[in-house]
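Project standup — Tuesday

K.O.: blocked on the structure for the chain from last sprint. Re-posting the sequence here as requested.
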Amino acid sequence: MTTTLLIPRITRVRRALVAASILMIGLTCPLGSAAHADVSAAARAFADGQTAQLEGDYDHAAQSFELAFSNAPSKEALRSAVRARKLAGQLARAATLAEVLLVQYASDAASTKLAGEVIAEARPKLGRVTVSCRAKCSLAISGRAMSLPPAESRVLYLQAGRHTVEATFDDGRTATREIAAVAGADSQIELEAPPPSPVASPVQPAVQPAAAPKPEPAEPRGLRPLVALTGGAVAVGLAGVGIWSGLDTRKAHDAYVANPTHAAFTEGRSKQLRTNVLFGSAIAVGVTSAVVAIWWTRWGSGEAPPAVSLAATAGGGLVTYGASF
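H.V.: unblocked you, prediction finished:
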């Protein structure tokens, strides 16, 4: 029993090795100018596809063959991918790969024969769409990427109905088009990368204008309030002395009436003159202080000028000066 289980495994391994060897030989010529092609990865992918195909997993086999072709393009890998897609019942994908096979290996009889057979079967059943890109692009159909090298033009076969074709360019920009495929009909679309997004210039911080220096407060004009207040106080003092002098003059008048002598008359006239001078001076100083207080005094903001009033009295006049402190 053990021997029976090992034989199939050994046979599959040998087949995979043989397939890999065949692929390596087939890759020798086309890869002569492709120094950077990953031949080792392509050989591993091709061997994996052979193994999957022997096991009947055609979808996995097709993916591996397409990966081998993407890593190191060869007609053997692409022909195997076309056959695996057809065996998996994926005629649209097989016909799309057949178009690539027909274009890239037109001088190879086996390739053109296989491609012609698959395309002839697909043309009446599927819509044929030619996609052109302004620059090389990779395509995805309805969100499913195609594992093919970027190209400027691809022929796609699609089931009848609406599909989304998305192109991705080398710089990462993408373009998308909606297309309605019609069975047996040809159509063509062109995709162009959108313009690059403008690079936002750094925002310069707003320069705040320098604050204008505050103007120096103007030096207030006029006399200080002390001048008017002093004048008012002097006027009040003179008025007080004038009242006293007026009383003294009245006494001298009574004395003269009681004893009318020349000396008493002369003294009374002298005191009367003194009283008149005092009251006149008080009135003059009071009026002058009032004028200074109202028009020429520098009072603080909101202050009212002092109130000055004049009143006549029995002996002459009375000056009243009032201010708030």
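K.O.: great, moving the ticket to review. Helices lie at 2-28, 39-54, 58-71, 75-87, 91-104, 109-122, 225-258, 262-296. The CA atoms of residues 143 and 216 lie 75 Å apart.
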